[in-house]
Write the structure tokens for this entry.
Amino acid sequence: MRGLFFKIFIIFWIAQSLIFVISTAFILAHRFPRPNFLLDPAFSNLSANAADGTNRFEAGGCAGFSAYTHQRNEDLALADPTGKILCGQVPAEIAGGAGSSGAVLARQVGNVTVWSAPAVSASGKRYLFIAIVPINREKHTWYEDLYHFASPQLPVAIAVGGLTTFVLVLLFTRPVVRLRKAALELAQGNLSTRVSEARQSSRFFKGDEFEALVHSFNHMAERLESLVNAQKLLLRDVSHELRSPLARLSVALELSREDAAPSMGTHLDRMEREILRLNQLIGQLLTLSSMEAAESLDKLERISLKKLLEEMTPDATYEAQQRDASVSLDADCECVIEGRRELLYRAIENVVRNAVRYTAPGTQVDIRLRNDPQGRMAVVEVSDRGPGIPESELDSIFRPFYRVDTARSAQTGGVGVGLAIAERAVKLHNGQISASNRSEGGASIKIRLPLAA
Amino acid sequence: MEDVLLIDDDVELGSMLTEYLGKHGFRVRAVHRGDTGLTAVRQRPWALVLLDVMLPGIDGFEVLKRIRSESNVSVLLLTARGEDVDRIVGLEIGADDYLPKPFNPRELLARMRAILRRQDRAPAAPAGVVRVQDLELDVAARRVLKTGKKLDLTDVEFGLLEALMRQPGAVLSRDELSQAALGRAFDPFDRSLDMHVSRLRRKLGRDGDDEDRVKSVRGVGYQLVLDREFSGQEG
């Protein structure tokens, strides 16, 4: 937020100072006398001085002239019309240049300006009156003018401009800072976040656009919270409402089993299996829909994939033994990632169980954990020795309820949502999941997850 | 006949369970609200309480909390919400076991019997005090002290710790632990044993950083780890 504050502050401050400087320049340009206005009085002044000077020379010689020079406190000299110096001290290079024409001349020599004006004394003799003026007093460039006229007020302008800009920017950014904080909180899943609204007493702020925005934001957050809560409640209620009849059904089934003839046993077993399957389906659908609703993960924890897999392997082995298969784990890194433990566990477990389900009896399911240093990724690869997946359908197997072979699935069990759940969970962890066929037969599913920093 | 209290808002399920459990030696009384359930719990000693989580009146967790504040009766939690959080919270508050709905009634029966077996066995178990390093477990008083401080353990956690402390340093299989603490065979798809263990682990390590007093041995089970300084003394 410092960024916005400083940007607005600096821009406004510079703008205010520039406005002051530029307007001063305009005022100077329009109202300050131009050189012509300046020079005409200067010329008439020079001629008057020249007449004065020559009269003093004729009356008192060089002593009279230098007295005049002292009186005027200027650097003056007098020459005859040919340029020969009669009185006063003039540097050699200037003396040579004092022309003898009839016009008033001004020449820059070094850092002085030499003015030479023809003069006629009262006795009718012609002279050349020379005034030597340091150059900087004469030179009025525009920026010197500007500096001259603007400098006293500029600090005031900068200070006042800075102060007002500071207050203005504070007015702008403070609500924005509050809003941003609240939006961040909201994005992290804290839906009860609200932006504090301006105190009722401060009439000045109440009702401005920012407060309206704050108000609208709060309204939005409220809606969001109630919608999400409603969604959660709905999921819970659906789960409850679907499972309650199933619970009754299982008890009823068990009651009838006790009264039934032994020949009914197989039918009842089948019904029991279907109840179990229906229950699994409800559970997985709820998991899937709650994951679809989640955009990102909150409450991340550090998880060692190696430990997670080690924990999972005994269960998978147990299940594999029922099919006369086995599971082997080969992990060569700790591979710590950040995420939600139970989601990851479920994701990888679904993939492993899927592999166990499809691998041929008597074969082995390989779980390999590798560290891919290039992409800073952990790679979990689960390979089975089953029938594999048709090439055209490699991407489709992550769709909910997608089945490669409907005839086979009835034997293998499962409801076809497991891989969809796995995909969603992996995506929530910013990872990728992909399926491929192995050259030696069987399918392989690869999960790539970004390693924790 | 054992007296069992069923607190569940599903009236029909209640009547069917009453019938089913009745056939297997349980006299069931079914109530359908949280508040009436709580009064019923107080009325007389029950062998077991079956408690649903979603209840009108008072929520099942709240009922469990209040039961725990005044009695030690065994509680088996039932819920149809099927959220992991429910299970964790339930065990945390002090449920003896947890069964998600829909359950197989035979499974319910097995769990109920396991809980009752545990109750029967508890006083009959070899009395006395088991000491392992800084842990002291009083079987008769069902009390655990860690460096003199009392640990607040649930029934299942107590059973787990007892089993581990009776064979310190040895690796106990999950099946053995399940039998000892939950009174039933280990089911690889039921994560509640691991959950009990991890909660026990946290309670043991609460004061310091010895989080892994109970170590998980991959593919086998769990082990009570002996501290180096102590094992040095013991040779």
User: Anything to note?
Assistant: The first helix of chain B runs from residue 11 to 23. Chain B has two domains: 2-123, 128-234.
